Target: ParB/RepB/Spo0J family partition protein
Amino acid sequence: MAKRKRLTPPQAGYLDGAGSAPAPAMRALMPSEPPIARVAGEASATAALGEVAEAMASARAEGRLIETLPLSAIDPHHLVRDRMAQDPEEMEALTASIEARGQQVPIEVVALPQPRGAQTHGLVSGWRRLTALQALEQRHGDRFGRVKALVVAPPDRQAAYVAMVEENEIRANLSLYERARIALKAWQEGIYPTRKLALQGLFGAVSRSKRSKINSFTALVEALDASLRFPTAISEKLGLDLVKAVEAGGAERIAEGLRRAAPDTPEAEMALLARLAAAAVRRPAPPAAAPAETAPVATPPEPQILEVEVDFDGSRIVLTGAGVTPALHGALQAWLRRQGAAG
Model:
């Protein structure tokens, strides 16, 4: 009969490794981490870091990386802005939203190749959001002193202008005057070689008829931009009437009328423009044609009397009277020559 073994209580520290560590002599004989495993681990870590860095660089280049930048680092005048005015109620609502919920949509900026003082980035789109944050920074200090931004890298300035225009077309519709003005400015700044290419480049997605109206408004911008106080309030109909007035030579008259009246509200300026446009294209009625005077009846000349004496024997004809003139003499000679040639 087999003898039973008596079980002993568990030894304290057996499972925590205190009693399981190998002796120093044994540790010396145990091999360390294989070199191949260490090299492989380091290579794997380096490759992973390289992939992360490449992904970050690609995201930044493609405008997919949101960065937090100081407001003072943004140059809002990097591009000529297409938006000329901001609706006070809309700006108040946007500012209140950012104050309550924070900035939800990032702005778009480009890194300046040569920073201007503290400004290291130029604004592409998001002018209203940047303006709202600047107002909040003045009220609350550093709490709103930074802005979320996508750092984009457009291939050229044309692409930057297109990005600005398209962003505003989607978020807040621009007036015809603002569209015409930015197209004109982009051409004058040398971004596009011609005005036509500026219109096509910036507003290629709009209909041809709308692009034609924008083109018409460029004449209005050229003639009256320095005189208008509320140009964004000009409606399509009034704008086209003003274009006709400008083309009719009424630009100076309209500008002088604006300077003298100096309207202080959009409504007053629009009413004045309507009157000035109508006056510029109005043509005075042509004067009534005077009744034609009865032309005097020409008195026919008195018949010239010729006396003819014929001498058949001598084959001679003698003409006498007031009708015998040098002209008659020449005509008779010519007739006689023709008769001789015909005979």
